[in-house]
Write a structure and sequence with these properties.
The structure is a homodimer of 274-residue chains. Chain A is α/β, with parallel strands linked by helices and 274 residues long. The first copy, chain A, has two domains: 2-91 and 206-268, Rossmann fold (3-Layer(aba) Sandwich), CATH 3.40.50; 93-204, Rossmann fold (3-Layer(aba) Sandwich), CATH 3.40.50.1860. The first copy, chain A, is 49% helix and 16% strand. The first copy, chain A, contains 13 helices and ten strands. The first copy, chain A, has helices at residues 12-21, 43-59, 70-83, 93-103, 115-120, 122-130, 144-149, 156-171, 188-195, 204-218, 220-225, 241-251, 265-268, and strands spanning 2-6, 27-31, 64-67, 89-91, 108-113, 135-140, 176-180, 200-202, 233-236, 258-259. In chain A, the strands form two sheets. Chain A has a six-stranded parallel sheet with strand order 4-3-1-2-9-10, sandwiched between helices. In chain A, strands 6-5-7-8 form a four-stranded parallel sheet, sandwiched between helices. In chain A, helix 4 (93-103) packs across helix 10 (204-218). The longest helix of chain A has 17 residues, at 43-59. Chain A is globular. The model of chain A is unreliable at 268-274 (pLDDT under 50). At the A-B interface, helix 2, helix 7, helix 8 and helix 13 of A face helix 2, helix 7, helix 8 and helix 13 of B.
Chain lengths: 274, 274
Amino acid sequence: MIGVFDSGIGGLTIVRELLRKLPGYRLIYFGDTARTPYGTKSPETIISYAIQDTEFLLEHGAKIIVVACHSASSVATEALREKFPEVPIFEVVTPSVKKALSVTRKKIIGVIGTRATISSGVYQRKVAELDPEVKVYGNACPLLVPLVEEGWLKKPETRRIVKKCLIPLKMRGIDTLVLGCTHYPVLKPVIQAKAGRRVTLVDPAEEVAEEVASFLSQHPELERELARGEDHQIYVSDLTEAFERVARLFMGKKVKLLKADCEMSHVIKPNASC
Amino acid sequence: MIGVFDSGIGGLTIVRELLRKLPGYRLIYFGDTARTPYGTKSPETIISYAIQDTEFLLEHGAKIIVVACHSASSVATEALREKFPEVPIFEVVTPSVKKALSVTRKKIIGVIGTRATISSGVYQRKVAELDPEVKVYGNACPLLVPLVEEGWLKKPETRRIVKKCLIPLKMRGIDTLVLGCTHYPVLKPVIQAKAGRRVTLVDPAEEVAEEVASFLSQHPELERELARGEDHQIYVSDLTEAFERVARLFMGKKVKLLKADCEMSHVIKPNASC
């Protein structure tokens, strides 16, 4: 199976894109809703959570791992590759950077994301590796996640907050903007309107799905190992009505969420050993 | 020591009030910043977390427990009293309800809080027990916590969102409004302005501190057991600069946050046993 994890429900935007680009492959998802969000937490904590999430997916039959969470992609990818050297691990930052580099004309890229993602400076480092001439400016927009989760996609408050969030980037003259959080693509119309028509938006969900598809086409031995079928499993560490509502928003249809029980119980059960 | 726990940093508003009303007593605080917030999570998950938080405080010498988190107070108090029958456990709902009942003239009370708090219906139940003639209307305002944590205390977006949040309660004709979340008291000026001068705000921090003080004056045997001193301990399960900034906002001065290490490590460490 293809394993995907996220701090919560937002990673379903990646699942949706994977299903579109790689129909027929079985997918397993883990959303850590019991500890969501990750983007406000420290790198050390995010790394620990990401390792646990990956272990859950591997124990349930995942053969490759897609880190859907931008905060985890930004701070935990290296630790995951070190801890699980045999497992192909994909993350959302690198494919977004490649795409952004291929579309920017003025060589000035903007990135919006959570505080953890932006503070990590990972976009600056990746761009510097690939094309040191390109400038990258980031801005943390922590209010966008709760606005999306409330379903406030078109409210005037959301428009105003998006506008404020983009001002420092527009002042830098960006012509390309990476949507560096799983939640942001559902705000695309508002973000495009406030960024201006001349700014190209990069949606990491599309890019990472493309990268996984291309990797599999080059690795037929792994492709054969992945299970086929339509019975995808969407696990969460905590289940509420609000999470189900948000899942629907991100997948574009109703989704059955499974509560991850004993497997992730150290997350939510008392008396876990120290 | 007097033990206080919260889903994060907001409970420091209660600590501040306890220090004011009960100067000289040693305090230990635990803020579960590694899993914050609680208010978006399910009752089962909140109960499990509240039990772990209480165990942490008791293991560190707390003799009485104050549940500063409104979401935990709303859904976990009963479970905590069952699990720790010997420990006096205080929560923020009951004293707020008592205060609201004592000030309402029209017998119509409003409550704002997180989704978990409002969905629990605990305010309605408590009021019905004490005065069945009084009506209570609740409204969940999940955006206020992230706005406060961003320090957006006076921005026009915050004013607009507060206004929207209060409209359904004002339409019911409330004359008293319980600030049912640790974060809301820092928004008092905006909330008062939007609620109108005739609406009395109830700040649970003041009420719970009053209740603890009154309980101790009636239980000298317990009062003697509590340690004295100024060396309060403020523990968190995750530490970031943003948490330190918010702590300062809530305490009104700089606070030294201690990272809870091994003791709460099942929260953040991998390989915790299932």
